[in-house]
Amino acid sequence: MHIRTRRLVDGSFSGEYHSIFKGRGMEFAEVREYSPGDDVRTIDWNVTARVGRPFVKQYVEERELTVMLAIDCSASTRFTTTEHSKTAIANNVAAILAMSAMQNNDKVGLILFTDEVEKFIPPKKGRSRARYLLHELLSFRPEHRGTNVGRAIEFLRQTTHRRSVSFIISDFRTSDFERPLRLVSKRHDIIPISIDDPREMEIPNVGLLTVQDLETGMSRLIDTTNRDVRRVYYEHQQRALVRRRGLFYSLGMDTVELNTDQPYLPALLGFFRRRQRRLAHGR
Question: Which one of 102, 187, 192, 197 is least enclosed by Cβ atoms within 10 Å?
């Protein structure tokens, strides 16, 4: 996987990543006493008032980013009716993002969560970092089955004090994350990556069907020949999808929508190019 990902990044993603994630530009370093010719807009008025003579803020160019990968490892992400599970897609996407960040000399950290934050690897940089994160991701076995995206977002807010580009990879099949997402988006550049399966959106007409909630273990028998049952389920899923999209849009977030029955590479490249066009137009 490491070799395949490196080839993908070298061939397609490295330049795309670098063009849209370049760092914040300037970072505060210190204050010093004002000298004639200094830009008055850099005066630190709080220090000036406290000391009694003018001081100015000094900045240094900030080249590196902090990239956080928060990945949902709950039982629902293991569901699939196609060749690839949500977990497999999430792992591949995370590997591409981690490798791209490493080649850009950025710091990368990892949060693996269910209904609890089960593993946290603080952001660091280094040539071997992507391989280490990939090993931790692939070898991880969660202790819990539930989902709490909001708890993971709050953990991100509490532990990542420096502004970051944070990718949250989940199926977002929970409704507990709106408030923490609004709070964390004020400091961090949050990019939700949602992964869905076609059978979660629509039930086929296959007669009597036993379905089980992978997170709670509860089972239920449903009659899929009943048109009203299929319609109510479809409408419920569509409303949830509209709410999710509306929330991300209201917060001005760039998003990536993936499906287990579609290749993830074109969607990921499409996100990079959409974001590049938006930045080029100053939006």
Answer: 187
